[in-house]
Design a protein that fits this description.
alpha+beta; 4 strands; 15% strand
Length: 181
């Protein structure tokens, strides 16, 4: 009986080196580095739930100080919700706005608001929201949360005027800066 080439004789020993797959791009993962060295990974700061709650407490205190109940959302750097509070008396219609502001600030690593151009275009600003299915916004009140120059999340505040929302969100940013020293 003749065995096909796909099924070699089981009595013939094949060396292990025959099963090595050559690296098609030897520069992609240099073999001399253990655990790929520092080329592929970084130590990143992460916002914890405890940190998010401390930021939230500071923003709630500022909102009470200015007597404007707020919706406060805090997201991690990947745009995932860590903490949310709807203060008694805050506008129900502003819940989604606060969530969107926080997500946008975290993902864009910048404050929410109109286009940074000298002459902000309404169409350009609205296009941002339309192009992302409402996940980003041109409404002020979302700020990135930074630690050591690295974005660890975003905070979004809504229910007051844009200036009040920014003021309350800034209290959260300042609280994080105080904790990360």
């Amino acid at each position: 009986m003749v065995r096909p080439a796909l099924f070699p004789d089981p009595n013939v020993r094949i060396p292990n080196s025959a099963f090595r797959i050559p690296n098609p791009n030897p520069l992609a993962f240099p073999c001399g580095l253990t655990n790929n060295g520092s080329m592929l990974t970084h130590n990143n700061a992460r916002l914890t739930l405890e940190g998010a709650r401390a930021i939230q407490a500071a923003t709630e205190a500022k909102a009470r100080e200015i007597k404007v109940p707020q919706n406060i959302a805090i997201f991690d750097e990947g745009g995932h919700l860590l903490a949310f509070a709807r203060m008694d008396g805050a506008k129900l219609s502003s819940v989604e706005v606060a969530l969107t502001k926080a997500r946008a600030a975290a993902l864009r690593r910048s404050a929410t608001g109109p286009s940074p151009a000298n002459d902000p275009s309404v169409l350009l600003s609205l296009g941002l929201a339309l192009a992302t299915d409402g996940k980003l916004t041109c409404i002020r009140g979302g700020l990135p949360l930074m630690v050591g120059g690295q974005c660890v999340g975003g905070i979004g505040v809504s229910a007051g005027t844009e200036d009040q929302d920014v003021m309350v969100a800034q209290a959260g940013v300042d609280a994080l800066a105080g904790f990360s020293k």
